[in-house]
Amino acid sequence: MPRFLHTADWQIGRYFNRFDTDNSSALADARYGAIERLAQLAVEHNCDAVLVAGDVFDAQAVSDRCIRRTFNATSGFKGPWVMLPGNHDAALAESVWTRARRINAVPNNVHLALQSGVIELPQQKIAVLAAPLTQRHTYDDLTAPFDSISTPPQWLRVGLAHGSVQGVLAEDIDATNPIAADRSASAALDYLALGDWHGLKQINERTWYSGTPEPERFRNNQPGFALLVTVSEPGALPEVEALETARYHWHQWQEKLVVETDIDELLKRLDELPESSVLDLKLEGSITLADEQRLADALSRAEARYRSVTYDRSRLLLAPTEEDLAGLQASGYVGDVLEQLQTRQSGAEAQTARDALAILANLLLEAREEKHP
Amino acid sequence: MKLESVRVEQFKQFRKPFLLNGLSNGINVISGPNEAGKSTLVRAIRAAFFERHRSKSAEDLRPWGDSSAAPAIELVFHHNGQNWQLNKSFLQRKRCDLSIQGTTYSGEEAEEKLAQLLGYQFPKKGASKEEHWGIPGLLWVEQGSGQNIEQAVVHAGDHLQSALNSLVSEVASEGGDGLIHTVRQQLGELLTAGGAPRGEYKQLLADELPGQQELDVLKGRIDQYQNQVDRLAKVAREFHKIDREQPWIKVRQALAEAQECYRHIESLQGQQQTLNQALISVQQRAALLQRNKQQVQADGKQLQQREQEHNTAQQALNDVQASAAGLHAALEQCQSQYRDALEVERQAGLLETRQRLDHSSVRAKTQLQQLSERKSRAVELQQALGESRMLTARHQISIAAVDQLRTTQRQLDDTRLRSQAIATRIEWQLEAGQQIELGQDTLPHQGEQLLLSSTRLRIAGVGEFTITPGGDDLARCQRQLEQLQLGLGEQLMTLGVADLAAAEQTLVAQERAQADVHRLLELLQSLVPGGLASLDSDSQALNAELERNYAEKKALAPATTLAQGLPAQAQAQDLRSNAENRLSAAEKRSSEHEKALLAASHRYQNADHEWRTLRTSLNSEQRQQEVIQLDSDLTAVEQEQARQQERLTEMLAQIAAARPELVQQDIQRLGASADQLEQAQRGRELELKELRARLEIWGAEGLEGQRGRCQAELEQNRRRCQQLQRRAEALELLLELLTEKRQALTQRLQAPLQRHLNHYVTVLFPDAQLEVDSQLLPGRFTRNGETGQMAELSFGAREQMGLISRLAYADLLKEAGKPTLIILDDSLVHSDSGRLDSMKRILFDAAQRHQILLFTCHPDNWLDMGSETINLEALKARALL
């Protein structure tokens, strides 16, 4: 019973500019880890092959080390791997692929589908119909030739392509590299493995996007999976199972703090996340000085515990209570300033006023600490 | 606050107890000369408050040389209706006791109470310094420091602030200034004073551009890389297409055809070459024959020419021979004429010689006659000369001797006159019959006589008198007279004359005879310069000449043989010369003719010979046949030449029709095309290799990886930069608000101080204004429309303003319920009398509200302060009693 693993969009060599160097390199490293897990899954599930539907590399001119690490990471699975060039790593006259071959980084069991046509895996009786991108962008449906390609009878006929299925994905997805929605039918494919869409997505019974195996953005469209595809015999409907591959989980929270319990709720959730989290927090509303202190403590803890925590408090107003103010012991004109900054938080330079208020509050607290340690 | 009394003991110069009491509420003028103890009292008050009783630095309070002393001070004062008494002693007995309305405090507690009351601090260790003095530092003015108010205000700052806070409703911020300081410091870490970024912020901003540039460079290179990849694809496509088609093969075939065609043309050109050469050789032969023919024709012409030359020569010879007879006759005539002229010339010469001899003889005879006359005259002159010379010899006398004589004579005369003048004169008149003898002489009866020497006078019948003339002079004169007479006699004898007149006469005669000799000598010289002897030799010479002439004339032919009418000799010479010239010309012509005749004869013989030889040669049989053969050969050659020319023309037309230049261009074009096509393909191959090699290198750099890293760094930098910017903005806002609020508060504090200041300033300067700045310091000073800082005023004015400010502070403190005691140690010594009067009014006004202790060594200045002056000297004297 033929069975293979469908994955795509590894995007090796990607940089994560929004994070600091430490987190950025950890996240980049995690992408190699994903390949190792794929190999491991392929072994665990007795797969016949691993099909990678494009964008193995994030760019053409990645370092040699990147290339070698990528292919080294496949070593766990000794069966055939079929890799398809996508729009990020198109099979140009000179490409990351030609370079990989030149530096002898490609193991024998890895098949590079650099030309449109069939890659035959005779042992597994699988014919992979490949539609690689040989230009960075194309406006033709590269899977069209599948309709007229014949494959050995009684072999599995599996399409491998990279692009946008027409009329299914959101409008704002780039219209280049189109793929006909009914290609699996018109080309009589048992399964059409697609890449380019980074989330897990089923197009029809025989057509799937596996998504990227390791999330790399906050968009919540089910990234972090590989598809285990089992076809009982040629022509049978494929059985598709999503296997989780993600090392890190990306969360983006937008929280509005209005009532006192909101902050409690937020802090609770913040404490409950798994350690492998990448969190981005956008806060708005208002917060007392005491709660602000709690929030700062919680964020500090989270930063230490999770892979990455970034937050935006620019829309969160500081609203010191009477108690807060009494605690600050801001007498005389300093008290005036405190009050004025508080009201200015909703004015033209709200951000600056908020920052100034926070600085002032901190200075006053420090002064109080010094006086009454 | 009112100070009641000050008591000191064992304190500096006050070894014995000294009490200053009875101080009044208002102003107290305490006077005393220098060293009377004014400053010591001030020091005592200061020490009582400022120095800790345990202080080790109170050594200066001890009386000089008294190491066992325990300086002690007792102060009694009232404040807020309470009685305060402070007893403080130092060094040997360290104690401090304070009693407030019966409640007693001691030690440090007592000291803290005082500090709190007056508003000052104690030093942590060591002596109390200016910065610790607080409000008393402001109100207790030390000698000579009244003008320095800034530091005092600063040191009093906190105490003033807290004292004044009670005056304004607003509560000043506790630690507000510290906060401002911190915010400013934190902002200073980000921005310079001018608001420019600094430190890390500046570095981040500075790094952004290079970062962006690096990124741009990388992006540029990536673009280049991608372009090269595209180029690689394009070139590879072209290469494979051309490699399949091999278009140069077809071109090379066409080239081979064109080359074949050109080889054919080349063979035609070879044939044309052969024809050309044949034609040239025929042409050469024709030219040779032609030249021969021309030679024959030339020979004929030459014969004619030679005949003509022969005739011409014969004619010329005849002409020359014909002119020979005429020339000969002319020659003979010339020769005869010449001989005649020669004879005439000889005879003319003879005639002229004879005439010359005659003339010479006549002249010689005449000269002989003249010589004879001159000789006789010369003899006469010679005779006269002899006579004159005789005469001269006779009257020989020396002119010098005569002059000497004259002098002697004159001296003698003079001496004689003088002797007579001094001689004794005797005049007498004898009576008749009487006789006198004088000396040897008997005197006549009447006369006079001069006596020059002792003379005996004997009068007969009477006796003898000896008369002796008196004096030396007469005797000397007499001696001189005798000498001169003796000299004169000698001179006359020498000259041989009787007297001077004779000598003079002889001298005149001598001079006349000498003149005659001279004249005669000159005459003789002019008549016969050479002397008489020369006259004789001249006559001998003339006689010889006459004899010679005679002999010569006799030798000449006699005059009768000469022809008549002979021309002069010169004319005869001219005629002969002309005849000679003519003869020469005739001879020359004759000789030239002779030569011409010879030449003409020669020419004729040559011409005749040449003409005859040529004629014989040309007219020979062989020669005639050669000419005929030549004509026939010439005709044959010309026909051959025309034939060859025709064949050649035909060949050239054939070659031109084949268009060799076009065929050649074809070969060039096709060859180049084939080469170019192959070369282009090789170029592609090379470019492919190069592109692959380059891309290989570039690819190995991992450019996009680098770009990713670079971009990440840049963005991180930017994020950090934004954070710092936000922080800087926030700090700026905070600082702005804090300083603004503080300013507002300060202004509220300034107002009452300003009010008090104005109160005093207008007493001193009616229209002036002294403004209080944000530090509560007197600052801008305006007077008569001019504005300046207080620090710019004169020393005296600054001292006055300083005092005014202090009084204003005192008023303010008083309003705030704080104790105010004002101590002035010799203040206002720099003020003029007018200002001092104003200041007195001010002080008196202030004294209505404050107790003022005014120490001075000029009590006279302060007599009009409305209070009794306390005299320290008097007090001390009383204490001793």
Structural write-up:
The complex is a heterodimer of chains A (373) and B (881). With 373 residues, chain A is an alpha/beta fold. Chain A folds into 2 domains: 3-244, 4-Layer Sandwich (Purple Acid Phosphatase, chain A, domain 2); 249-371, no CATH class. Chain A is built from 9 helices and 17 strands. In chain A, the strands form 4 sheets. Chain A has a 6-stranded mixed beta sheet with strand order 4-3-2-1-13-14, covered by helices on one side. Chain A has a 6-stranded mixed beta sheet with strand order 5-6-7-10-12-11, with no helix packed on it. In chain A, strand 2 (49-52), helix 2 and strand 3 form a beta-alpha-beta unit. In chain A, helix 5 packs parallel to helix 6 (289-305) and helix 8 (332-344) runs antiparallel to helix 9. The longest helix of chain A is centred in the first third of the chain and has 24 residues, at 21-44. Chain A is elongated, with a radius of gyration of 27 Å. By secondary structure, chain B is an alpha+beta fold. Among the domains of chain B are: 2-166 and 765-880, Rossmann fold (3-Layer(aba) Sandwich); 271-322 and 605-663; 327-397 and 472-566. In chain B, 67% of the residues lie in helices and 11% in strands. Chain B has 19 helices and 20 strands. Chain B has helices spanning 38-50, 107-118, 134-139, 150-165, 176-190, 199-245, 248-322, 324-394, 399-422, 472-495, 500-527, 531-555, 569-618, 621-657, 660-700, 703-764, 795-815, 833-847, 872-880; strands at 2-9, 18-20, 27-31, 72-79, 82-89, 95-100, 103-106, 140-141, 424-429, 436-438, 441-443, 446-451, 455-459, 463-467, 769-772, 778-783, 786-789, 821-825, 851-856, 870-871. In chain B, the strands form 5 sheets. Chain B has a 6-stranded antiparallel beta sheet with strand order 2-1-4-5-6-7. In chain B, strands 8-18-19-3-20 form a 5-stranded parallel beta sheet, sandwiched between helices. The two termini of chain B are 32 Å apart. The chains are: A alpha/beta (373), B alpha+beta (881). Chains A and B meet through helix 2, helix 3, helix 8 and helix 9 of A and helix 5, helix 6, helix 15 and helix 16 of B.
